[in-house]
Design a protein that fits this description.
The protein is mostly helical. It has 14 helices and no strands. The two termini are about 25 Å apart.
């Protein structure tokens, strides 16, 4: 099974790298031929990429609570939905503050989730894992590059204005400070990764840096969330879900991965429906409102999702 899982993890990692390269190339092409004020292509691609990533967090109940406890299951689902709804209302009510909290929370969740994916990849391959301090620096860089950098560049204003004008000046006077902080941390992480001959992680960080610096903010977040973080997390789920484990034991890595996606499909449908309902009652254009609504729901779901997967990440990173 470990051999099948190891091959799957490497394929998923390659896919995430290729998806980022695709996003960069498409961004360079479209930004060169389409008026900068026309964000339709960004909205369409972002909605598609976000949709790809939504199912990955919808199986938290399957990996967090005992399957034979109906009471705990009901309590978990109730609490999970309640936290997500509270987060939705908070972001809609306090746009900027809610956005700032979600930004930093997402950066940490994404970064340590990616470091956990690499730790499990190393374990499956029988490779010596990164040291703890290296995991921390990699996690901080991998999380802040695709989340913070796109939001502190000048070109983020038009994108944020398309999503929600209230977010344009979200960082206030700390815009440049945040940008240089992330870049310095990333440079230091690259240096120690190279020193420790972790060249595959170097490629990852360079890919994320190029995505963050070249692609528009909407494309950067959407493709990172859907085609990097989400599918890497889904690969990790194949080690925990019974149907995925069963498929892996028969040598079918593809079926193992699909088995980890299927339980999350209803969440995708539900999220899109909620996003459409929120967009319908929004005074702005439907496409912009739909993107904002989907982002709000995704951000809100990140709150209970991060809480549910924190134990899994600590175990992978040996932080217990």
């Amino acid at each position: 099974m470990n051999q099948v899982a190891s091959r799957l993890f490497n394929q998923v990692r390659l896919f995430s790298n290729l998806a980022v390269i695709f996003a960069i190339l498409v961004s360079v092409l479209f930004q060169g031929v389409i008026n900068s004020g026309n964000l339709t292509w960004q909205v369409l691609l972002s909605v598609l990429a976000l949709a790809i990533g939504i199912p990955h967090g919808a199986v938290d109940h399957l990996i967090t609570i005992p399957r034979d406890s109906k009471v705990r299951f009901a309590l978990f689902i109730t609490g999970y939905v309640a936290i997500a709804l509270i987060a939705v209302l908070a972001i809609l009510r306090w746009n900027v503050v809610g956005f700032e909290v979600v930004v930093w929370m997402s950066a940490l969740h994404f970064g340590f989730g990616d470091a956990s994916f690499i730790a499990e990849t190393d374990r499956l391959a029988g490779k010596t894992p990164m040291s703890r301090y290296l995991e921390v620096f990699y996690a901080i860089s991998a999380g802040t590059l695709p989340v913070i950098i796109p939001l502190v560049q000048k070109k983020s204003s038009s994108a944020l204005g398309k999503v929600n004008p209230a977010l344009i000046n979200w960082a206030g006077d700390y815009t440049s400070t945040l940008k240089y902080f992330v870049l310095v941390i990333t440079l230091f992480a690259l240096l120690i990764l190279i020193t420790n001959k972790r060249y595959r992680e170097v490629i990852d960080l360079i890919a994320l840096a190029c995505l963050a610096l070249i692609a528009p903010p909407l494309i950067t977040f959407a493709f990172y969330f859907g085609c990097w973080h989400a599918i890497r997390h889904t690969a990790r789920l194949t080690l925990l879900l019974p149907k995925s484990i069963e498929a892996a034991q028969t040598g079918n890595g593809k079926r193992s991965f699909i088995a980890a996606i299927i339980p999350g499909v209803p969440a995708l449908v539900g999220t899109v429906l909620v996003g459409i309902l929120l967009a319908i009652f929004n005074k702005d254009g439907f496409s912009s409102s739909l993107l904002w609504s989907l982002l709000v729901v995704v951000w809100a779901l990140t709150v209970p999702h991060m809480m549910a997967t924190s134990k899994l990440d600590r175990k992978a990173l040996r932080f217990n």
